[in-house]
Amino acid sequence: MDNRLLVLLVALFATTHAASLTSAPFISCDTTAYPPNPRDAVPTYTVNLDLSPRERWIEIVSNKKNEIGGLIDDVKNLTLTLIGEKVFNFVITNLDKVAASLPHPYDEEIIGIAKAADMPVSEITLYNIFYEVFTFCTSIIMQDPDGNLYHGRNLDFGLFMGWDPKKHVWRVAELLKPLVVQLKWQKGGKTVYESINYAGYVGVLTAVKQGKFTFSFDERFKANGGFVGILEWILFNDHTQKWVAFLTREVMENANTYDEAKSLLSHTRLLAPVYFILGGSKPRQGSIITRWREEFRTVDLWSKESDSGSWYLVETNYDQWKSPPFFDDRRTPAIHCINAEGQKNASLELIYNVLSTKPILNKLTTYTCLMDVNHGMGAWLRTCGDPCWPW
User: Would you say 147 and 283 are in contact if contact means Cβ atoms under 8 Å apart?
Assistant: First the structure.
């Protein structure tokens, strides 16, 4: 079992809804969503890297233990449905082995989280690996006429994971929203970088190293990835590959320049294919790094290879050199709305408005994050009123 099932399910479901997806005569760009409502801002916590790994997450997890437990119960049931009983049981029975095999400090952090949440280590391990295979996202980098860079993203999660026909929401996406937190990762009392996380998730999906670079990653659906890499980790003890979100955390902690971060994200062998979206602190420092598990391909700001524009980059979950599928084309509306405003209006405001335009904003969107390499980041929980794709 691999990500091909997920893509097939999307295609089959979307085909039955093709009329609703293609009937709109034009794209209606949202131009009034910014500024975000302060009530939707996510709470901020500190991760003290000077503490022992087992102690770092106690405060956060203690505050969110009920929400984590509710989510994991749903994830277990829904993952069983998606990947089948045979594969599910194999993975679940080996999760303690997976936890023990994770590199330091993640192994110890997961043990500490399990204790703080009063849950088995195997379940916290599941919570920390299912992001490798189930995320949908949109990331945007743009440069204004003065050379300032802006970076934003929607994190969408939970397609085919528990549709509630009464509330018209995906259940896992709704269960994730109370878990979204902004983290300040500190050493010696100083912030090394900031990230937007789900509480108790030890990897990094969206982050800023102030004055250095900004980062997000989007899922890439390929046959050789996701569950394939996890099974290789379990069956063949292939621990030379990196878990994607652990690599990104190491990059945030250790890389000190845009070029250094770009090299590490490009050349490290990975457990799953992915798109890394990286922004720097200087003009023209912006790239989409398309990763296979061992190879890479890069599209940069001002590159002729970009399918969007010279002064901005848009990545959803599909290769830049291919057209997005008709059933999930968030790229075209994003490009249309950015072009409608032009580079003179490049800003966090423009990015937020674009990310608030349907179907870029959709029923799976848990949060929108805005990043400025010189001033930090913020994130806000999102809802998408009907009618809203998907579905």
Answer: yes
